[in-house]
């Protein structure tokens, strides 16, 4: 290959890379508007379903399929389970700290609608678990970790610093995805988003880790609520 040919090839690659980064930025901006538009301004239906569909379509058309969203074989299932359980412990520990610390200047965290119906009600608890393992564990993790975090990292170039930027952006949007919980709930969910992004990266960007962690954490919440122990 001549030097001119090599230069031309490098220019083509550079233009293609720039185009991909601009496209990722546009996708990220649209996703952020969907999150804020639904949760803050109520101009869209629920953002989780929209983000999940958009993420799957984007992955199918442009991003290497489901593996591009993190649906890949983990390096170790033991690592996946260990990280998921570790997330549950840390997430609940921090949760018990956040609300007391914010109680002096923010209202208590608002629980999701229908939470009070779970207490002592096995059918309501089972319905909540079904919603958790589909809508929350799969839907939110596809949308926030697989899609938003990935698009943010790609927009910033895909390096280590870019992934840290993706962690921050996805965590902030995840916090606002729980806007109904109030200021303390936004902070609490944002911290959970940071932790979830951490286990995602620690597992080699394996989305199964986040899905398991999210599902187990919310399942514990349902069990404790059913038993009347999660007031």
Describe the structure.
The protein has helices at residues 3-39, 47-61, 77-102, 122-155, 160-176, 182-202, 207-226. It is mainly alpha-helical and 231 residues long. It has one domain (3-226). Helix 3 (77-102) runs antiparallel to helix 6. The termini are far apart. The mean pLDDT is 93.
Q: What is the H/E string? A: HHHHHHH
> How many structural domains can be distinguished in the coordinates?
1
Give the class from helix and strand content and strand pairing.
mainly alpha
Uncertain regions spanning at least 5 consecutive residues: none
Shape: globular
How far apart are the termini? 70 Å
Average pLDDT rating: 93
Radius of gyration: 19 Å
Strand segment count: 0
How many helices? 7
Strand content: under 5%
The quaternary organization reads as: single chain
Helix-residue proportion: over 70%
Main β-sheet description:
none
How would you summarize the topology of this molecule?
Blueprint: H1 3-39, H2 47-61, H3 77-102, H4 122-155, H5 160-176, H6 182-202, H7 207-226
Helix pairs in contact: 1-2, 1-4, 2-4, 3-6, 3-7, 4-5, 4-7, 5-6, 6-7
Characteristics:
0% strand, 231 residues, 74% helix, globular, mainly alpha
Please provide a brief summary of the model.
The protein has 231 residues and is mainly α.
């Amino acid at each position: 290959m001549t030097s001119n040919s090599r230069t031309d090839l490098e220019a083509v690659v550079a233009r293609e890379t720039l185009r991909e980064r601009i496209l990722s930025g546009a996708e990220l901006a649209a996703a952020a508007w969907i999150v804020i538009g639904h949760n803050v301004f109520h101009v869209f239906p629920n953002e989780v379903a929209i983000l999940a569909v958009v993420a799957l379509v984007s992955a199918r058309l442009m991003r290497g399929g489901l593996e591009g969203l993190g649906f890949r074989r983990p390096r170790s299932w033991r690592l996946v389970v260990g990280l998921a359980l570790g997330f549950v412990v840390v997430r609940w520990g921090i949760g018990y700290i956040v609300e007391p610390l914010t109680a002096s200047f923010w209202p208590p965290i608002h629980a999701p609608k229908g939470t009070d119906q779970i207490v002592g009600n096995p059918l309501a608890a089972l319905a909540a678990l079904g919603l958790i393992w589909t809508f929350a564990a799969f839907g939110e993790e596809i949308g926030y970790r697989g899609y938003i975090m990935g698009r943010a990292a790609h927009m910033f170039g895909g390096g280590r610093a870019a992934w840290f930027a993706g962690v921050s952006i996805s965590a902030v949007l995840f916090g606002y995805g729980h806007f109904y919980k109030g200021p303390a709930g936004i902070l609490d969910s944002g911290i959970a988003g940071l932790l979830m992004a951490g286990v995602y990266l620690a597992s080699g960007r394996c989305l199964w880790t986040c899905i398991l962690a999210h599902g187990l954490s919310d399942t514990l919440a349902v069990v404790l609520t059913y038993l009347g122990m999660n007031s």
